[in-house]
Write a structure and sequence with these properties.
Layout lengths: L4 E6 L2 H12 L10 E4 L9 E4 L1 H4 L9 H7 L4 E3 L3 H16 L4 E6 L2 E5 L10 H16 L3 E6 L2 H8 L7 E4 L4 H5 L12 H9 L5 H5 L3 H8 L1 H11 L16 E12 L2 H21 L3 E11 L4 E12 L2 H15 L6 E12 L6 H5 L9 H17 L16 E3 L9
Parallel strand pairs: 2-4, 7-8
Antiparallel strand pairs: 1-6, 1-7, 2-3, 5-6, 9-12, 9-13, 10-11, 10-12
Helix pairs in contact: 4-5, 10-11, 12-13
């Protein structure tokens, strides 16, 4: 049976969702003027999270500093992010998708896969169906999406990235040679700039050239796993299923991009506490504990540094994560070079609350979890579950004078 997969992607999601709200309130449409979602325009700090099509004409790029974007376009309208709005809009368009497809997989806050395999009697014309879903989202919710159609997730996603906005595209096997192989090799899904450079150095400039390249020669440069994936993807091969339920998390992480340079232990520890509280809470909600904690920091030159430790007993309390993270930070941040990003990741997970306990009885290292901290976390988690995550906070970045832009979808990662 041939598979039929849709990939639906909201066009400039954060900006579109803010623009839709403003249009409903009788304000100007941000999508029609040079505009961006990002940091504080008055301080000129933070980065561009999303941009309008008119902003692209000024060569404004996602991820670049707000100050740089304003130098390119002084009239650029900048709006602060509203993640509560984004979550609401994300749920709304995915609910429409679920009303059509028997299986829907959330890929990110603004993307999802729909599996219509075996529904040809219900939906005999896939392209007409794609237009129906696209137009329903536009008419009912006020923002546009692109729909990509293929026989697997890879081809559907690549197709949705063709011409935007508000379009439907296909990438079926018979179209790969004309629609996929002519693209630059760097356009292939999951090929980063470093891999793309290695390939172009090998005189592999297009996806078609990669598709026909000798895989043994690729292995010598990219290694076994990467070479096989690149070769398969270049030929449109992907057997991964569309999963209705999220896979069990293999790690939990959270990070903040700092709008103000962090130079002191006091400021860094405040942020570590906020991150520890958030990431451990999400882990606890899944009933998991972690044997591994890692901290990553980024300096002004965008270079990263990471430290990780393995524990003899698993932890899940905010205090245990925080104390471990502080030690890791101290080990790698000796000269207090200004920081622009701090991240915490919890991994090597278990749901067995007795894991490692026997080992700790014969080891000098005691379990970092203790009953008092567990009760405190349980109480705070309960309050937040009833009244919202912002109803009560620990001593975090509030009061430090720091501005941070939290990574919205990074609190729960899968490897």
């Amino acid at each position: 049976m041939k598979r039929l997969i849709f990939h639906i992607d909201v066009n400039s999601a954060f900006l579109s969702w803010e623009a839709t709200r403003r249009v409903k309130n009788g304000e100007d449409d941000l999508r029609l003027i040079p505009s961006a979602i990002g940091g504080d325009p008055e301080s000129r700090r933070g980065v561009v999270l999303a941009k309008s099509i008119p902003a692209k004409k000024y060569n404004i790029k996602t991820g670049e500093p707000i100050g740089m974007a304003l130098r390119k376009c002084p009239s650029l309208v900048i709006v602060l992010p509203d993640f509560k709005l984004y979550s609401k809009c994300s749920k709304a368009f995915k609910d429409i998708c679920r009303s059509y497809a028997p299986v829907v997989e959330e890929f990110s806050i603004d993307e999802c896969f729909l599996d219509f395999t075996g529904t040809e009697h219900v939906y005999p014309d896939p392209i007409a169906l794609a237009y129906e879903i696209k137009d329903k989202i536009k008419n009912e919710l006020g923002f546009t999406v692109n729909v990509g159609i293929g026989e697997n997730k890879l081809c559907a996603k690549i197709a949705s990235d063709f011409e935007k906005p508000d379009k439907v595209h296909t990438l079926f096997p018979e179209e790969i040679s004309t629609k996929l192989w002519t693209l630059p090799v760097g356009d292939l899904l999951f090929i980063g700039s470093s891999t793309a450079k290695k390939l172009t150095d090998m005189r592999i400039r297009t996806i078609g050239e990669l598709a026909s390249y000798d895989i043994k020669a690729l292995r010598s440069v990219l290694g076994d796993k990467m070479s096989l994936q690149c070769h398969n993807y270049a030929n449109g091969i992907d057997n991964s299923p569309v999963r209705a339920e999220r896979e069990e998390a293999k790690s939990y992480s959270n990070s903040v991009t700092l709008e103000d340079d962090v130079k002191t232990d006091e400021a860094a520890h405040a942020i570590l506490l906020a991150l520890s509280d958030s990431v451990s809470r999400h882990m606890r909600s899944d009933g998991a504990m972690a044997f591994s904690v890692s901290v990553t920091i980024r300096f002004l030159d965008f270079k990263n540094k990471s430290h990780q430790c393995q524990l003899s007993s698993p932890i899940d309390t905010t205090k245990a994560v925080y104390e471990t993270a502080k030690k890791l930070l101290a080990e790698m941040w000796h000269n207090h070079r200004p920081l622009r990003l701090i991240s915490i990741t919890l991994s090597n997970l278990t749901k067995d609350r007795t894991s490692g306990v026997q080992m700790s009885l014969f080891n000098e290292e005691k379990s970092l979890n203790n009953e008092r901290d567990e009760k405190l976390d349980k109480a705070l988690d309960s309050i937040r579950g009833r009244f919202g995550s912002g109803i009560v906070q620990r001593g975090t970045v509030m009061g430090t004078g720091l501005n941070v832009a939290r990574k919205f979808n990074g609190e729960k990662d899968k490897e």
